[in-house]
Amino acid sequence: NAGVTQTPKFQVLKTGQSMTLQCAQDMNHNSMYWYRQDPGMGLRLIYYSASEGTTDKGEVPNGYNVSRLNKREFSLRLESAAPSQTSVYFCASSVNYPIEKLFFGSGTQLSVL
Amino acid sequence: RKEVEQDPGPFNVPEGATVAFNCTYSNSASQSFFWYRQDCRKEPKLLMSVYSSGNEDGRFTAQLNRASQYISLLIRDSKLSDSATYLCVPRGNTGKLIFGQGTTLQVKP
Question: pLDDT band for position A98 (50/70/90)?
Answer without folding.
Answer: low
